[in-house]
Amino acid sequence: MRSNKINIGLIGFGTIGSSVAKFLLENRGLLLKRTGMDFNLKLVCDKDLSANRGVNIPKSMLTKDIDRVINDPDIDIVVELVGGIHPAKEIVLKALSKGKHVVTANKLLLASEGEKIFQRAGDLNREIYFEASVAGGIPIIKAIREGMVGNRFSSILGILNGTSNFILSSMSNYGTSFKAALKEAQGKGYAERDPSLDIKGLDSSHKLAILSLLAFGKKVDLDDIYVEGIEDISTLDIQYAKEFGYVVKLLGIAKRYGDELEIRVHPTLLPSEYLLSSVSGVYNAIFIEADLVGKQLFYGQGAGKLPTTSAIVSDIIDIGNKIICGKSPAKSVIPDKSEIRKIRKMDDVITRYYVHFSAIDKPGVLAKIADLLGKHNISIASVVQKERREAHIVPIVMLTHEAREKDMQAALSSINRLSAIKKKSVVIRLEK
Ligand code: HSE
Fold first, then answer.
1. Which residue from 327, 333, 329, 337 is spatially nearest to 116, judged by alpha carbons?
2. Residue of 140, 165, 198, 301 to mutate, ligand 1, most atoms within 8 A of C-beta
3. Which tens digits make up the pLDDT trace of 9-30?
4. How far is Cα of residue 115 from the mean position of the Cα atoms in its chain?
5. What CATH number matches the domain at 5-129+305-325, 2.60.200.20, 3.40.50.720, 3.30.43.10, 3.30.450.20?
6. What is the pTM of this model?
């Protein structure tokens, strides 16, 4: 019988890596008591070993050589915390082929190459766990794979990017400008190295792709996800939305209609009384609907070294169970091709809209706008004309009933061409 000792090799000794290393070194006894397994951090690898990481690691455990970790026959689990696609992909695939199980926090890698990697892990009877790749410390992957394993999922609405949520919350609660709020988020260390991944909605789309694979059995190409970021959202629109009883959130939305999946990321108006609407600051939340459990909301810290460490440690323990007991606690992540056959085109999405027109204040303008909307099958649910803010220009703000995206875009391009319209109209989709 094998001993209860599980050896771990860590590749990537940055903020998260050093936090995981510190936890493993300081809590070996605690984990032994709680799990009956002895988790031993054996090697830590990084290309820079000179920086002070705030954790004392014996020199003999440190290496710059990735192969030393991957080729070490004693290492059972490789924890990949390098980030990005290369060389993370090569590290993960090589580790699997050398018989290691893998834990990764790498959402970009899994969202783009997940199918191949999961397939490879499955072929080799190895495990790859990735709880930290989505929503930091919230155990959403475990909840979908295990806690709700008997369910058929119908929709996911997620606030999946803490930086964007922090920015939108600051703009909404304090009237802070987009630029100032972004600067503050960066100062607090929430943003990705390249903040455009956060504010352009890409980080959310990577996370949504992973959740959709798990919930709907569908590997979605990142290019098939409609993505719009928050850079064009103004404090004024947030204010107008509030007056209609809505808040603006950057949402990742995936909905199933039979064998068709709708999947998109964009700023969204949500009724202020929804629980999801009260998720403020850097927090993440995922609202799920499924046939057995009904509606569920998961809420917590979506980033930061400690919540991420929590997720990584949980993955290590699950793999430890597989190693010792021979059975993985989670369902497989190989896509199920019988479930979803088609991704709905954005043009065919049906939703409600908030629209803000900047128009000349003269008789007949509102009638012209309403006429063009009507001609494209778009029905107005409510409309407000605001006081002038600039000479001769008035904001006309409306909410529509449900309409097809294609019709809305066609109506907007006709309306934007009217001589009475002085700025590009603002459109934000709405969930109810
Ligand atoms: N930059 C991400 C966010 C955290 O702001 O949510 C890591 O996924």
1. 333
2. 198
3. 999 999 999 999 999 999 999 9
4. 18
5. 3.40.50.720
6. 0.96
143-301 CATH pick, 3.30.465.10, 3.40.1190.10, 3.90.226.10, 3.30.360.10: 3.30.360.10
Give the integer Cα–Cα distance in Å for 269 and 210: 24
Q: Which of 89, 100, 207, 322 is catalytic?
A: 207
CATH architecture of structural domain 346-430: 2-Layer Sandwich (3.30)
- Ligand 1 atom with least separation from CA of 160: 6
Domain parsing of the chain, residue ranges: 5-129+305-325, 143-301, 346-430
Inter-residue contact 8 to 40 (CB < 8 Å): yes
Question: Is pLDDT of 97 > 80?
Answer: yes
Asked if residues 157 and 252 have their Cβ atoms less than 8 Å apart, the reply is yes
Tokens of 143: 């909840």
Least confident of 3-17, 81-95, 190-204, 214-228: 190-204
Could you tell me which residues are beta bridge partners of residue 353?
429
Give the β-pairing of 77-80 and 5-11: parallel
Which protein residues touch ligand 1 with a CB less than 6 Å away? 161-163, 190-192, 198, 203, 302-303
* 8 Å CB contact between 20 and 313: yes
